[in-house]
Design brief:
alpha/beta; Nucleotidyltransferase, domain 5; globular; binds zinc ion
Amino acid sequence: MLAAQLHADGVSAALAGLGGRLHDTVHLPLPADTAPERLLAAVAEAGAGLARASRRRILGFALALPNPVTEPDGTALAALHFDWPPGAPVAELFAAQVARADLGPRARGALPTAVANDANLAALAEHRHGAGRDARHLLLVTSGHRGVGGALVVDGRLHTGSSGLALEVGHLTVDPLGRPCACGNRGCLNAETDPEALFAAAKHRPDPGRPLLPQARELARDPAAADAVEHVVDRLGLGLAGLVNILNPDRIVLSGLHLDLLAAAPDRLAAVVAERCLWGRSGRVPIVPAQVAHAGLVGAAELAWEPCLDDPQAAMAP
Ligand SMILES: [Zn+2]
């Protein structure tokens, strides 16, 4: 299989086997032109290059995107990182670009393709291969380069709502007077607990020459930034408590910057969640760090495998 992930600052692609294993992986910067067709052509070519070099027959190709993706039509909403127009038909465009790509001498016919939100795919990866194994109601919350994503896996299946847009947890209000959010409101979890929020709380400016997330992860582990970490942890706790009261998960997995916030102040985070959960037991839900490296890619690989595992004979037909 081929799996790919679009990030705010680059493209990753990997050859993937069964069991969450990634083989050859490439990470490339974003092309100068991030219009949907151009960017998806770059993703298709990154995967096709791996396929040609491996000389393996590829059976499917799936892509993780850092924005909501509607179901079943596969349009991208609020793709703010790339300045895409609202409702870009990303599933259709990706399929067209993969169909044009040269997948090597063993390619046969049209390759099945799929696209989905990266937080959803990371949750799937954690449930099958990481910190979410055996959880029945697994809630994943993560902050990557900007904003906050969430996902819920119930009995092994993603809960994506009526049109793919469930668990957009980033717009939970955790401070009515807080920082402005891209949605037009103030104090959303997005704007209060992402890397920019941590830098603002610490009154530090990130180095513009380096990606934001690794700098924020370093800051979260810096004892000199303890007050800022506590400020952001308290807001993350408020958001998690709201989600726990609504969803009653049996495990919460945190990833991205939230993993580092958990590492820096685990007792404080658990205490804020417990204090805001009135039902006693629901507030004692285990909050654990994510375990899967490149979880978005691993989740995309799981998505790519689905049609093949559902009907192996059709997938392997010459
Ligand atoms: Zn918002």
